[in-house]
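Help! Submission page says 'invalid entity' but I think these are all valid:
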Amino acid sequence: MSADERTQMSADKKNRLAQIKKRFGIVFLILFMGMSPLYAQGVSSEMPLQLFVKAGFAYKEGRYEEAVKAYEEILAQGQENGALYYNLGNAYFKQDKLGKAVLNYERAKRLIPRDADLNANKRYAQSLVKYYQKPAASSVWGRVVQNQFGVFALDELAWITFGLFVVAAIFILLALYLSWPKRNMMMALICVAILFAVCFGGFITKMQDQKGLGVVMSDVDARFEPRDEGTVHFELYEGSKVKAVTTQGGWVKVERLDGKAGWVLKDTIEKI
Amino acid sequence: MRTTRYGQRVMKMKQKFIIVMLVAVVSSLFFMGQVLAADVSVQATVDRATVELGSFFQFTLTVTGTQDAEPVDFPQVEGLQARYLGPSKRISIINGQHLVSIGFMHNVYPLKTGTFQIPAISILVDGKTHTTKSISIRVVSAGSNTTLPGSGSQSEGLQDKIFVVMGTPRKETYLNEAIPLTIKLFITEFRMEHIQYPEFEHVGFLKDGEIKHKQYQQVVGGVAYNVVEFKTNIYPTRTGVLTIGPAKVTGEVVFKGSGSRRMRRFGGFFSDDFFEDFFGGYETKSVTLESVDLTVKVLPWPEEGKPESFSGAVGNFGFDVSVSPQEVTVGDPITLRMTVTGEGNFRAVKLPELDKREDLNMDFKFYDPQITSEQGMKRLEQVVIPKNDKVKEFPAVSFSYFDVDQRKYRVVTKGPFSIKVKSDGSGEIKVVGLPLTTTGQIVHQEEYLGKDIRFIRDQIGRLQPRGFQMYKSRLFAVVIGLFVLVWCGAIFAFQVSYKIKTDVRFARRMQAPRFARQGLSKAKGYMVKGEKEQFYDTVFKTLQKYFSNKFHMPAGAVTFDTVIKVVGDKGLKAGVFESLKQIFDECEMVRYAAAQLDENTMRESYKKAAEVIDAFERV
């Protein structure tokens, strides 16, 4: 084989490789475009990480509106986490949007309940809410759930409860296979069962407590009836936490943390 | 046995019946006792004070507290003639007390005009003499006693039939003190409908929004009246001699039309009440009745002993204060609740305004209070936020009022309330050091720190799909489901192994197919090698061991007949028994008669043995 032939063959090989690469690139692009939900939704194709960094820079430079936009874009892509809500809450707070800030801190709290920064900011934001009422459980059980289980996210509680269930089940198996004395086995089992019952009860109560909770977005009058002419019962202030009880048309009946209830327009409340 | 149970049931029923009867008897005795224990009283009443000549009035002598009283004759009064109608017995329950009474009714017909005095009547009841009061009756000529008030207020001649009385137990009172006011509408002879709440002049007084009313009967001067009573409170707002009223009550008087009265007067078929009601013999007329006015002297509050905090509360009050929670972090809200309860003028009750106290504003931030009022209670709720962690207590709160019963001022003080305020790490005021002064004294130097939110996060961390909750996911359900399955499997395995250990019959039955498989495998080896005797010996022993394990019998007892006997007909396929018999026969032939069987027969026997065991396993 002459040198020319070898050169020719090498050139052909390169062309083929280039063609393969080109085809692969097109196929990959088509696949990527087809699979990417962002492209399909027409939302910015920027990755969440890029947006998060961009928002961080904007926040540091005091461009809070831009930061909010970037954080909201990550949420619009269907992604969330505690840090994202925390930063978003901060950005809203800096814009003096107390309602939105409290809302995002509350959302973050559900994901990272033990975060010290979050708790400090949330407490501070709530102290600025007019007539803020700290949720105070009336029953002993309510106080237990509030104080002992408040530091756990619902998912964590679910795992803890399941873990206790596994421990109880393994206890039973070990006791059977290793022929443990019945009394010892019962004692151990009762202890685990009580723990399990308490955790399970706490999980259920917490789940029920979180249902329908919302934050008031702007100062609004809560009325006795779901109509504009209804008598004003009390005033709800931006950032107050309320529980949605029922809806009727464009109105929602909300219950304040002290139990007083009234009707407000749906768009004045945002669900946590 | 049954009879005994029946007898016991009858005995129990009898016992229950006796208990119920005893309870009933005791209750009756108690009831009787209550009835008998009631005081006896006697009262004489007439249904009207003025009557027209030609008409009549009703005289009733009522004995209350017993029904064992003899009828009483109407006393002899010149110009009046009475006709006894008969007794009227009554049992009523008032405030849980059973009250019995008997009334002796007379229709009394005047024979001439004038004023007549029905004298007091003495009656002997239960060995005691009771005397009624005398009653005055005015008889006027027919037509002069108007049936209805004319236009204007109360007409002449009707003042004693329908009238309004206003009264108060206090003629002298203090500023802001609650004055109970009673307005009574007395009605007799007529019926009144659509009665409106009374209105009265009250210059210098505040009127209570609530007016309570009730209806009852009252005897005044021997005449029984239906009384509508209105009760309310008024509060003087200035001192001096003030006038209340007159009170005006409006309503519609129902009276009988003249035609029907005529019919009644002359008696006859159509004088029956039913026909009068049916043919509408009644008419109505709107009337406004007026009472006389009242004067009340309103005194100013005494200056002696008047506390500085007194703000005009007059009455008899209780005061309570609560502070909760008592353990908070700097910036957390504390709810302060003040409650005033009792009797008096709650409109004039002003709860202490703590947010105006400078000493408190140093340590606490006050939000606007929410004040609620209910009947006999006024409550204040106020959110208070401690500004720093040096706050150790919430100071005492005082409420002062003028006690109307004791005629002196009272000051009720609650607190101080100890509270624990924790630092939140970014508090407003902190003690940062304990420097010494030149004199060597320790002074607290305070540093003022700013307050703001903490900075944002740099790291995004792990994102998750929005709204995802693990405990609601399929993965979590699958993990739980798998664990439950494995656990149930482990429990089942334990139960099987436990039964194998403790139940020999079960253990042998469970092991039978395993031994059979081992035996057949061994037999197959002999079959391949062509060792007929060992093959049939192994097949026979395998079957023997299988059946002895399967049916829990000694191995030596296993023959075709014993197997048939034990198994019976348990739905085995046709031909299984034939195959079994054939194998047993072939085994015996080879083992005891050294019969020459070829390889095909061996294979056939092996196959049949495997099929027989399989068939028995399927049963």
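Support: the input was valid. A stray whitespace character was the problem, and the output above is from the cleaned input. Chain B has a mean pLDDT of 79.
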